[in-house]
Specification:
Length: 504
Amino acid sequence: MFETLSDRLTSVFSSLRAKGRLSDADIDATCREIRIALLEADVALPVVKDFVAHVKERARGVEVSQALNPAQQVVKIVNDELIDILGGETRRLRYAKTPPTVLMLAGLQGSGKTTLAGKLARWLREQGHVPLLVACDLQRPNAVQQLSVMAERAEVAVFAPEPGNGVGDPVEVARRSIEHAKRQQHDVVIIDTAGRLGIDQELMRQAADIRDAVSPDEVLFVVDAMIGQDAVTTAQAFMTGVGFDGVVLTKLDGDARGGAALSVRHVTGRPIMFASTGEKLEDFDAFHPDRMAGRILDMGDILTLIEQAQKTFDEAEAAKMASKMASGDGFTLDDFLDQMMMVRKMGPIKNLLGMMPGMGQMRDQLNQVDDKDLDRIAAIIRSMTPGERAEPKIIKGSRRERIARGSGVTVTEVNNLVIRFFEAQKMMKRMSQGMGIPGMPGGRRQQKATKPKKGRRVSGDPRKAGLPKPVAETPKPGTGALGNLGQQLPPGFDPSKFKFPGQK
């Protein structure tokens, strides 16, 4: 969503890095480009003015004028201001002292409230809670049925005593749901309310009545991040008519310019608490302002990547797989398939790679990444026999033709997979052996001192005649021509081979 903004800001900062010092003209030009980038991203004009004013004020201060690298300091200032405009610190849910904690969702129709209710319920269940979904959207056709399906997919309970489709009192359903949650020992209640295509008095009155009936601990305003400037107008109307404690952004994976995310929090003063980035239930997480600012400035989001990996990979399995990979030969195609499926569970490969720093400059290559390539590889491996997966060396011509027919690919693709697997095995073995670098664990040993060649001229000193050949010994610390310096030099260092400047 922030691709355009990220590209513009990255190009602005790249032009700054070539400058040793920044003049007032450089700062003005930079702030002008930042203003244009924010306006093109559909950020509200008051937000743009405040943001640029803060950046310009700090850029002309002591922290930049006395910095060793002024360009990097300006980037830091922009990063700090982005974090501030997105909310500063991560806002956590407030839980009631006495369960259940009541969460009320409000927003326009089409903003994704019902889908988000299922995502939030699944997220809370993974946190160890026992959530209950409540169907209070009794106006939209099949809204109750949709919420029931989402509850089933999220593996949580649902309270839907009314069929909906215009039948039933949503305020009474919300009130009864609290008693039902207490009886069934649900510690979190998520109320899905009705929406409208536009703001009207009936919508606001119904939402306010539900709020008064259940006294929610958190009212979350759900906003579609793709609607641009209308998000600010809608947020202000809900803030006046109903009031809310936090914002939830949906459809952050869309191709809109993303100005809503930078505008809503600044205009309403309410923090962004959650973000939804896809259609799947797992495409949902708490909103971290510092991580989002890092993505916008192409600094990556390594922390989120690590958290996703920790959720997906089992520690015991990861340790077992690491030992197999270290051995090289012990790593089979079955192991390769298991690792690939775990990576798939983390989400689209393009999104994972996009969390790495600097990937914004490789967006064209990232757009060519297709998860179907992994599905094709999985089909090839699953078309092999258990013996072929364990010993890929036996996969010859006839076997490759059979595997190609079974997986619906060409023989060339099967050949490429087998060749790449062998190359990966060799690479893992080299890595486990220290890549053959002296001094690395498992690396090749240092060369031993060679014995004098036969026929070498013997010393003419008669005192050495008939004596046994001297044995090379390691000098004791503090002895030899280097003295104590010898203890600080790396093993194998030969000072006789050192060349001074100008020496051939």
